[in-house]
Write a structure and sequence with these properties.
single chain; globular; Aminopeptidase; two-stranded antiparallel ribbon; about 260 residues; alpha/beta
């Protein structure tokens, strides 16, 4: 799906579901849009993002399918906000990185990399993003390096590395939901990130990888729990989209407390 078609369908779906479209800023010639609930909607504030990397398309397409096909209840009973495509220039070009060629880093002081053009837009809107993620943030990524599912967890660890804090056990349910579709990356698998220490998967989770990413920054700045899912990009696209919709619904039910159908 090209970018123009995506926006047309998203606008139509937002009108139908009575959602607000808010421009966050421009990167190159493209606008980064937020979709959010009306101001009178009850519930806990949750932020969900996709398309941080332009070639990881199941996130944006899963967000679109969720908005198009889910019942109105989801949008009337939950205070939701989405950034469907963080890097629209990259999405349009079908490449990983955005307008300036940088990637998902540089959101915190003291990190090696400067923020990307897209990152600068998000930083300009950080007060809004923290308000929208007051009860949690989910960002939908994909990987071509693994055949199974895993996630990055940013949150308290109950005093022990490799452990989800008791108040965040819903992270384990997100892991379980992804595992239903793809299975989990085996324990001990090394997840390599350029310029960072080696990271290992434990029970399908990489814990608190302090890399200056968007998900790391939101948690550091006050979001209580931040989860970055990694669906295997080599699997069939429709399966990845189906899994993405399921992950979105699971996160909303767990963190927001509302979902139906």
């Amino acid at each position: 799906m090209n970018l123009e078609t995506y926006w047309k369908r998203l606008v139509s779906a937002c009108i139908q579901k009575k959602l607000v479209l808010l421009p966050l800023g421009k990167t190159g010639r493209q606008i980064i849009w937020m979709v959010k609930s009306r101001g009178d909607v009850p519930g806990k504030s949750i932020l969900i993002a996709g398309g941080t990397h332009g070639d990881e398309i199941a996130g944006p397409l899963g967000i679109l399918r969720f908005i198009e096909e889910s019942g109105q209840y989801w949008f009337d009973e939950n205070k939701l906000a989405f950034i469907p495509i963080v890097a629209p220039v990259a999405f349009k070009a079908g490449r990983r990185n955005g307008y300036t060629g940088r990637t998902n880093s540089g959101y915190l002081w003291g990190m090696k990399e400067e923020p990307s053009s897209e990152g600068e837009v998000l930083l300009w809107n950080m007060d809004l993003l923290l308000k929208c993620s007051r009860f949690g943030f989910l960002t939908l990524h994909e990987t071509d390096h693994e055949e199974n599912f895993y996630l990055y967890y940013y949150g308290e660890t109950g005093g022990r590395a490799g452990q989800v804090a008791e108040e965040h056990l819903d992270a384990l349910d997100i892991r379980k939901e992804g595992g239903k579709f793809f299975g989990l990356v085996p324990d001990g698998t090394r997840i390599y990130e350029t310029g960072l220490p080696e990271n290992f998967v434990r029970g399908g989770i990489v814990y608190n990888q302090f890399d200056g990413s968007f998900e790391h920054a939101l948690w550091t700045l006050g979001c209580p729990i931040s989860i970055c899912t990694e669906t295997p990009g080599r699997k069939p696209l429709n399966l990845r989209i189906e899994a993405t919709v399921a992950l979105i619904k699971e996160f909303i039910e767990l963190r927001g407390g509302g979902g139906k159908g």
